[in-house]
Design brief:
The chain is globular. The protein is an alpha/beta fold. The strands form four sheets. The chain has a seven-stranded mixed β-sheet, sandwiched between helices. Strands 11-12-15-14 form a four-stranded antiparallel β-sheet. A two-stranded antiparallel sheet has the order 1-2. It contains 15 helices and 15 strands. α1 crosses α3, α3 packs across α4 and α9 runs parallel beside α10.
Length: about 475
């Protein structure tokens, strides 16, 4: 599933790559090679992608072919490029280095640990009244077996109404209730992706989605997102779909996790059209769709542009409500929902009825709950931004228009080292490589703003204290892997 980046595309990614003037000016070929290595390290240029021919890149950059030839030779020498005569050159990392994105831990009940690894809010005050009301509704379900593979009708109707209110007419027959969004993704993969199938994902992306693809032994290709600005490069995204023709593409268009980007409406429409032409199914993760901040207007759902049942949307209650309420859903065509229900029999039969009833009551009160969540998140985000600006001014952060996370570009490739050092001072982090493949993204760090403002400020203070001692720190022992949510 090798894709190719064209000369004009690579030139746009490279930007101002030229060597700086001065007495110790490095050769242009060395500067070009260093710029390509930087793109690989940041995940903007995927691994395993074929680079343009030397002549094509030279024309796009308006430099001599000799410079490109020397840059490619240096990249091969450093282990960042593999070439085969007559077939081209592919990006790679030295020594087949690879960092896995999987690994789970059970959090310890350590009151002094500030956990920035999990991007989720505490339960809203309306949860307890909703649970009480649900227990009162429960008796009418007790005369049956309690198995509802697609979910109880009340909840399916409530979720369908939420899609209709967003401008996407939806019936209850198009909704399947699951035990969380991750469960929804797992069921969709069982239906839509054979073991070893090809998948296109964003880079960076949600680590637990990568773990789900790995469990299916999927062949994963990536499309790099920019740290700031639009995020998605339309030319590269659409080109990746057309070139690789993956069986499935996984996208988070609404306040992307971890970058917080919001995909514009025109790109949503173009992506659906490209997927249909390529025979690709789109799995659209809408976990954060209810959390626009600062009055950010929301584009139509990706599925609003679907005319051929190519888009399967997944979402759930974890981010706007509470992660402990394991309720998610799939929106697809009615026949797809029935096939998902049949596949579910071998997994868990059905979601708990009582939890579904709680969800029904929470969704009935959703306008008030979500409005309070947005106000809370906006205040906590601003507190985190102010703390970073005051204590770590060299870090670059783009203010996200919604969601629950900042994607910080650090002042060096120190993300994993910083995470290990931070745990010693009581801060748990989600380092950049967890959100990508093959050891890239060491210059980045995800920082959720789901904790109270005072804890966020304290966390930044502790990070600033350890950041400047990193270069002098002793080698640390390996720790248990951690969960990122």
């Amino acid at each position: 599933m090798t894709s190719q980046v064209r000369g004009a595309q690579l030139a746009r990614l490279l930007g101002h790559w030229h060597a700086l003037p001065g007495r110790r000016r490095s050769p242009d070929y060395a500067a070009l090679a260093a710029a390509v290595r930087g793109l690989l390290a940041d995940g903007r240029l995927p691994l395993g992608v074929r680079l343009p021919a030397e002549r094509e890149l030279a024309e796009a950059l308006r430099i001599s072919r000799t410079t490109v030839t020397a840059a490619y030779r240096q990249l091969r020498e450093t282990g960042h490029l593999a070439s085969r005569r007559g077939a081209g050159s592919w990006t790679m990392l030295p020594g087949t280095h690879r960092v896995a994105s999987t690994g789970l831990w059970t959090p310890l009940d350590d009151q002094d640990m500030i956990d920035l690894g999990v991007a989720a809010l505490a339960a809203p005050p309306q949860l307890v009244p909703a649970a009480r009301a649900a227990t009162e509704d429960l008796p009418r379900y007790l005369n049956g077996a309690g198995y509802h593979p697609t979910g109880i009708i009340e909840l399916r109707e409530a979720v369908a109404r939420s899609y209709t209110d967003r401008g996407l007419p939806t019936s209850a027959e198009q909704i399947m209730v699951t035990s969380g969004t991750q469960h929804a993704l797992d069921l969709v993969l069982r239906l839509a992706l054979a073991p070893g199938g090809s998948v296109l994902v964003e880079s960076p992306t949600y680590p637990n989605a990568l773990a789900a693809f790995a469990a299916r032994r999927a062949r994963i290709a990536t499309h790099g997102l920019a740290a700031d600005g639009l995020g998605w490069d339309p030319d590269l995204l659409l080109g990746s779909i057309r070139q690789t023709r993956p069986k499935l593409a996984y996208l988070i268009p609404d306040f992307q996790n971890p970058t917080g980007h919001l995909m514009p409406a025109d790109l949503r429409e173009q992506t659906v059209a490209a997927a249909h032409a390529a025979g690709t199914d789109l799995v659209v993760d809408e976990s954060f769709v209810d959390l626009p901040l600062d009055g950010t207007p929301m584009p139509p759902p990706v599925a609003a542009y679907d005319r051929h049942s190519r888009v399967i949307s997944i979402g759930g209650m974890s981010k706007p409500f509470w992660g402990g309420l394991r309720i998610g859903w799939v929106r697809a065509s009615a026949p797809q929902v029935q096939r998902l229900a049949a596949a579910r029999v071998g997994v868990d039969m059905a979601s708990p009825v009582l939890d579904q009833l709680v969800a029904v009551h929470l969704l009935a009160d959703a306008p008030a709950i979500v409005a309070a969540r947005r106000a809370q998140l906006a205040a906590q985000r601003d507190a985190l931004l102010d703390a970073l600006d005051a204590r770590l001014p060299d870090w670059r952060v783009t203010v996200p228009p919604g969601g629950v996370t900042l994607w910080a570009e650090l002042d060096g490739p120190i993300s994993s080292a910083l995470a290990r050092a931070a745990e010693d001072v009581g801060v748990r982090l989600a380092p950049g490589p967890r959100f990508g493949l093959d050891g890239t993204l060491e210059r980045f760090l995800r920082l959720p703003f789901t904790l109270p403002a005072a804890e966020l400020v304290e966390a930044v203070s502790r990070l600033a204290a350890v950041r400047y001692d990193l270069d002098r720190s002793a080698r640390r022992q390996w720790r248990e892997a951690t969960v990122i949510a």
